């Protein structure tokens, strides 16, 4: 019988992160779902366990680098991680001229710093085993500006895409593959806070060739592919999952 693989997912309490957790659970992984929002994370984990998936939770703040690194090391010692997905992220829609330094620091602290040090801690755990998959969550905004006023979010996701390429090239010979997923517009609570239902419907019908928003589980299934042997020669790539929006 094949040994169960272990995956750690940050930002797993809701939205895309929860969808990623679902997809890995469905694929037979033991899922360590990590997030800062403890009660919401526990509710998500209970739902996944109720579906028959093998899931546990971890309270993690990706901006607290020392604690984050220690936690990932401890998790890895208990359940050696074959995949780590850096999914924790936050958004902000605000005119460029009005963004404050505090808002700038928060977005980059979570989206860039948090991703960087999640990847670093994962690499340190995996390197002695000579194998592993590290996946960051970028965005179509890594390639083209969002339809809304999201300059700070877009620039942070551009940094994630650049980071993945640089790290993948540096560590490729260790046997650890580093890649990213770039979701398009996905049906999440965050998306619905940033746009009305009518705006999202208009976007789907007029901007997305498949004429619908993505589902969090679909982003998760793309992550599972990048973790699999089917993607054994995929390294440093940002896989766009957007219903054709960028085409």
Structural overview:
By secondary structure, the chain is an alpha/beta fold. It contains eight helices and seven strands; from the N terminus they run E-H-E-H-E-H-E-H-E-H-E-H-H-H-E. The protein has helices at 15-26, 38-50, 65-78, 101-126, 151-171, 189-194, 197-207, 216-227; strands spanning 6-10, 30-35, 54-59, 81-86, 132-137, 176-183, 238-241. Strands 3-2-1-4-5-6-7 form a seven-stranded parallel beta sheet, sandwiched between helices. Helix 4 runs parallel beside helix 5. The N and C termini lie far apart (42 Å).
Observed structural traits:
247 residues, alpha/beta, seven-stranded parallel β-sheet, 47% helix, 17% strand
- What string gives the helices and strands in order? EHEHEHEHEHEHHHE
* Radius of gyration (Å): 17 Å
| Major sheet attributes | 7 strands, parallel
| Largest sheet, spatial ordering of strands | 3-2-1-4-5-6-7
Distance between the termini: 42 Å
Percentage of β-strand residues: 15-25%
Flag low-confidence runs: none
Mean pLDDT rating: 94
Indicate the multimeric state. single chain
DSSP, total strands: 7
Number of helices: 8
- Which structural class do you get from the secondary structure elements? alpha/beta
Overall form: globular
Task: Please bin the fraction of helical residues.
Answer: 40-55%
């Amino acid at each position: 019988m094949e040994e169960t693989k272990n995956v750690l997912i940050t930002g797993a309490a809701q939205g895309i992160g929860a969808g990623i957790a679902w997809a890995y659970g469905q694929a037979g992984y033991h899922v360590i779902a990590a997030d800062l929002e403890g009660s919401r994370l526990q509710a998500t984990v209970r739902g996944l366990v109720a579906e028959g998936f093998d899931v546990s939770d971890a309270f993690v703040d990706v901006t607290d680098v020392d604690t984050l690194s220690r936690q990932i090391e401890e998790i890895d010692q208990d359940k050696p991680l074959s995949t780590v997905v850096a999914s924790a992220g936050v958004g902000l829609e605000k005119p460029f001229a009005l963004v404050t330094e505090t808002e700038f620091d928060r977005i980059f602290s979570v989206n860039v710093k948090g991703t960087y040090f999640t990847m670093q801690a994962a690499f340190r755990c995996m390197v002695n085993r000579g194998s592993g998959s590290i996946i960051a969550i970028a965005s179509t905004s890594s390639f083209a500006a969002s339809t809304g006023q999201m300059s700070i979010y877009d620039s942070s996701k551009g940094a994630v895409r650049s980071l993945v390429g640089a790290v993948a090239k540096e560590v490729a010979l260790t046997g650890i593959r580093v890649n990213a997923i770039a979701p398009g517009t996905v049906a999440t609570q965050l998306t619905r806070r940033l746009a009305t239902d009518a705006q999202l419907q208009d976007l789907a019908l007029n901007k997305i060739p498949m004429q619908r928003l993505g589902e969090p589980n679909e982003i998760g299934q793309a992550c599972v592919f990048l973790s699999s042997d089917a993607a054994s020669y995929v390294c440093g790539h940002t896989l766009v999952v957007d219903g054709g929006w960028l085409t």
